[in-house]
């Protein structure tokens, strides 16, 4: 339990470091924050905050920086959510046109978050691995392309266009669709590719151009199963001082490419549930990276919008913006139902 003086000093250190990315010393706090304490008193309190693990000392400066434990304490006890009407207006402008498909609305939301925060934003769509295939439809577009429509038991629908080299007849498409529905309906999404390989001999027996259609459909399905993740502003992290080190940047890029990692964040034992206006925000720290996520619902489906950045991010602003955005996504979805 911190005294009010220690809370005041610690809060100022966190917020100053968020702004500057520079270690904070007692002189800065006295001059910039007009604190009614001497430098010696502030240094003593900083030593205490370091002793309890809320601050860390760097090798290059006598100042202090917040630790991960410190950020957690700040978010849980000292952060206050403030509404920025200009940012709310900018986010709301994404939803001005009602005829925009929901996938585009969500991706635009992701883009505007990354632009406004200069960080990386991520959208996770419904987890395909928790769904089963309910129906497949194949529609020819021309002699060399087709649209595959996948429908899951949770009502999720995806359309994927694929092309093939050989001429595929209407009879081939009809036979293939019948076999796929007969053999694959009810299969968990994460098992469909394996089952597809098992029924390939059946397709070979019944579909004249089975090889071309099988390969094209397989690629379309793999795309469906993995395409429900969208990143925006990954290059923004290049400009964060924490990732100037090339090895740290390589590690971050590997993390961004790991879809299993993003899906498992909700199971992280160190995640922190945040109290936002929607009450569905969570915060996870992964080494030098912080991930703030907010859940949105569209009917029976659930997705997540995330902002990824250094631990030194403006948590107050990020949480507020995520709250705005996910609320607007849900509002837009409900309007389309009417």
Could you explain how this protein is built, in words?
This protein is α+β, with helices and mostly antiparallel strands and 338 residues long. It has three domains: 4-78, Winged helix-like DNA-binding domain superfamily/Winged helix DNA-binding domain (Arc Repressor Mutant, subunit A, Orthogonal Bundle); 85-127 and 229-337, Beta-Lactamase; 129-226, 2-Layer Sandwich (Enolase-like, domain 1). Helices cover 47% and strands 20% of the residues. The protein is built from 13 helices and eleven strands. A six-stranded antiparallel beta sheet has the order 7-3-11-10-9-8. A three-stranded antiparallel beta sheet has the order 4-5-6. The chain has a two-stranded antiparallel ribbon with strand order 1-2. A hairpin with a 4-residue loop joins strand 5 and strand 6. Helix 1 crosses helix 3 (39-51) and helix 2 crosses helix 3. The longest helix has 23 residues, at 315-337.
The CATH homologous superfamily of the largest domain is named GAF domain
H/E topology pattern: HHHEEHHHEEEEHHHHEHHEEEEH
Structural class computed from helices and strand pairing: alpha+beta
**Whole-number count of domains:** 3
CATH architecture of the largest domain: 2-Layer Sandwich
CATH fold assignment of the largest domain: Beta-Lactamase
What summary fits the major beta sheet?
6 strands, antiparallel
The whole-angstrom Rg is: 25 Å
What topology emerges from the helices and strands here?
Layout: H1 4-20, H2 26-33, H3 39-51, E1 55-57, E2 64-66, H4 68-78, H5 85-92, H6 102-117, E3 120-124, E4 133-142, E5 145-152, E6 157-163, H7 170-184, H8 192-198, H9 200-206, H10 210-226, E7 229-232, H11 246-256, H12 259-264, E8 272-274, E9 281-286, E10 289-298, E11 301-310, H13 315-337
Antiparallel strand pairs: 1-2, 3-7, 3-11, 4-5, 5-6, 8-9, 9-10, 10-11
């Amino acid at each position: 339990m911190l005294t009010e003086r220690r809370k005041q000093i610690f809060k100022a250190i966190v917020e100053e470091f968020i702004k500057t990315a520079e270690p904070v010393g007692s002189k800065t706090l006295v001059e910039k924050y007009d604190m009614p304490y001497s430098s010696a008193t502030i240094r003593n309190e900083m030593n205490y905050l370091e002793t309890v693990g809320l601050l860390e000392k760097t090798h290059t400066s006598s100042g202090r920086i917040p630790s991960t434990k410190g950020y957690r304490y700040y978010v849980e006890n000292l952060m206050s959510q403030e509404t920025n009407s200009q940012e709310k207006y900018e986010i709301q402008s994404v939803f001005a046109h009602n005829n925009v498909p929901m996938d585009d609305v969500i991706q635009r939301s992701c883009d505007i978050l990354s632009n406004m925060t200069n960080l990386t934003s991520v959208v996770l769509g419904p987890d395909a691995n928790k769904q089963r295939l309910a129906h497949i439809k194949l529609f020819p577009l021309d002699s060399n392309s087709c649209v595959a429509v996948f429908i899951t038991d949770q009502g999720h629908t995806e359309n994927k266009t694929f092309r093939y080299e050989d001429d595929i007849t209407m009879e081939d498409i009809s036979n293939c669709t019948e076999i796929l529905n007969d053999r694959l309906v009810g299969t968990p999404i994460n098992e469909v590719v394996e089952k597809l390989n098992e029924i390939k001999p059946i397709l070979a027996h019944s579909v004249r151009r089975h090889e071309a259609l099988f390969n094209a459909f397989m690629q379309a399905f793999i795309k469906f199963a993995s395409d429900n993740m969208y990143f925006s502003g990954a290059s923004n992290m290049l400009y964060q001082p924490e990732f100037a080190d090339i090895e740290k940047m390589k590690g971050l890029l590997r993390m961004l490419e790991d879809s299993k990692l993003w899906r498992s964040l909700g199971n992280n034992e160190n995640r922190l549930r945040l109290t936002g206006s929607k009450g569905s925000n969570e915060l996870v720290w992964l080494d030098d990276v912080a991930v703030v996520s907010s859940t949105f619902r569209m009917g029976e489906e659930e997705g997540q919008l995330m902002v990824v950045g250094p631990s030194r991010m403006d948590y107050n602003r990020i949480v507020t913006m995520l709250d705005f955005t996910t609320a607007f996504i849900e509002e837009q979805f409900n309007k389309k139902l009417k």
